[in-house]
Amino acid sequence: MKVLLISLDNIGDVVFTSLLSKEIKEKHPNSKVDFLCKSYTETVVTMIPSIDSIYKVKPYWARNKNDKGSFIDFVKMFMALRKNDYDVVINTSKSWRPSFFSRLIGINKTIGLKAKKNNWFLTDVVENYSSDVPVMTSIANFLTPLSIDVMSPRYQLVCNNSYTFNGKYIILHPFAGAVERCAKMDVWLSVADELRHKFKVIWFGSSRELNTLRLEYADRLESDEFSDVLSNNDFQSAIELLPNASLFIGHDSGPLHLASSFNTPVLGLFLPGEPHRTFPQGGKVWDIIHHDTPSELKVTEVLRGAGKLLK
């Protein structure tokens, strides 16, 4: 059986999708499973051990100009995929376009999310994501049309190289795709002040995010480390910081799930986020703090949550 997995979404979504190839390979050891992703998530896909080949493309409908590709390049990608003669495609993205192009190149079995346009191009419809249903339960549903049942769906990545730091460290990720979901920097800085007594603090993020942090709060961060510097601004090297961390604290975003996928203890800040859907579902040591607004978050509860996970 030849299967094409499609996730043209963000980092966290790719982490979730890692379940599918693992379960397919366990049920059908001789199957071939390929993955089509966005260019910037390719690094994450390389950490899914059960993937045979990786293809990358920029979706032409993306709103972010950095993610947006051309229609012609997208068509060329699917024309190139046609020669692989897939039996099944699983489109975990919400867009109907990958489903349409999959049928166009002759893939007979198309599995995807229930949606008005998407339904036209699917042979097997899966119930859409819900804020009340754990995301990994929803991901496992994509396997039902293949007669694969998953009892305890979890995501897991494999990092072949992990960063060895001199001493114990905690990673802080104070960023998220939407600024309105982020705790105030005063909270993060106060948390870091307390954690430094026993741990090295490493701030995790993109160079753009971390440059802003360094410029605005240089006097309070002198003894800290930064993921872009430690990794020489290489995303894979930055990810390699996660497995050996004593704790990861971050918002409801992709890096939280990356850390959890390596079984790193994680404390998720959902402000509000989707605590019933995207709570950490990789490792077994985790907790979340949920509030309707970031202004409700207190330094004391973050430190209390961190303390419980560090015991």
Q: Give the overall form.
A: elongated
CATH superfamily of the largest domain: Glycogen Phosphorylase B
Content of β-strand: 15-25%
Q: Helicity level, as a percent range?
A: 25-40%
| CATH hierarchy: architecture of the largest domain | 3-Layer(aba) Sandwich
**Termini distance?**
46 Å
Helix count equals 11
Major sheet size, sense and barrel closure:
6 strands, parallel
Count of domain modules: 2
Cα-atom Rg, whole angstroms?
20 Å
Determine the CATH topology of the largest domain: Rossmann fold
Write the element-wise H/E pattern from the N-terminal end onward: EHEHEHEHEEHEHEHEHHEHEEH
Tell me the strand order in the biggest sheet. 3-2-1-4-5-6
Number of strands: 12
- Low confidence ranges: none
Return the CATH class of the largest domain: Alpha Beta
Query: What would the average pLDDT be, to the nearest integer?
Result: 96
InterPro entries: Glyco_trans_9, LPS_LOS_Heptosyltrfase
Keywords: Glycosyltransferase, Transferase
Pfam families: Glyco_transf_9 (PF01075)
GO cellular component, one term: cytosol
